[in-house]
Amino acid sequence: MKKIAVILSGCGNRDGSELQETLGLLLAIDRHNMIYQCFAPCIDFDVVSYLDNSGETGEVRDLYAEAARIARGNIKPLGEYNPADYDALALPGGMGAARNLSTYAFDGANMTVLPEVEKAIIDTHSASKPVVAMCIAPMVLAKVLGPFGVKLTLGDTSAASKAAVQMGAVHEVCAATEICVDEHNRVITTPAYMVATHISQIFDGAENMIARLGQMLA
């Protein structure tokens, strides 16, 4: 049975892992007779308000503890991830990918990536194992795998897609349920809420992505 490592970035779309995308991803993995193990970095992050558009609340939380809420407690520190133990790596979306796993939300194309996240991606890529990502999470791949000419999608042509191209990635326009497949770099991405308007599109996109991953791993 194939094993998929999933990197979470918190809990919630504005400052962590997007819940609907993450659940769609985990459900698709399970339905394709694969198993998943969630990981998260052990760092603090700044909480963003979910009640209005006021931005950061001034509260700081433990990312690892927040991610454990989604994983129902079955989570490991990202530092323990070893690609030799897994068949693929997955990153759901949510602004945590742009705020916590990287600095894209603050620095745009001049972003940096959390060192242990960068290491996980590079080590997986070096082992010729697939990496899949949803929504804004492909920005992290653009930064790390841009030097390899990675092809990915962030949905429509946008400021995000232009930043990805600036970092060396090749951007492919995709609808919400469509996937972008980079056979050479073994990367599969789907736009999710970068362009989606219905939760059903999120689950369909995740299903299509993981179905294609299954073919890649066959």
Keywords:
218 residues; alpha/beta; Rossmann fold
Count the helices. How many? Answer: 8
Share of helix among residues?
25-40%
Shape category = globular
Mean pLDDT over all positions: 98
Q: Can you give me a brief rundown of this structure?
A:
By secondary structure, this protein is α/β, with parallel strands linked by helices.
Q: Can you give a write-up of this model?
A:
The protein has a domain at 3-134 and 198-217: 3-Layer(aba) Sandwich (Rossmann fold), CATH 3.40.50.880. It is built from 8 helices and 11 strands. It has helices at 19-31, 63-70, 96-99, 104-107, 115-126, 138-145, 159-166, 199-217; strands spanning 3-7, 35-40, 44-48, 56-62, 75-77, 88-91, 131-134, 151-152, 170-171, 180-182, 187-190. The protein has a 7-stranded mixed beta sheet, with helices on both faces. It has a two-stranded antiparallel ribbon with strand order 3-4. Helix 1 (19-31) crosses helix 8 (199-217) and helix 5 (115-126) packs across helix 6. The longest helix is centred in the last third of the chain and has 19 residues, at 199-217. The protein is globular, with a radius of gyration of 15 Å.
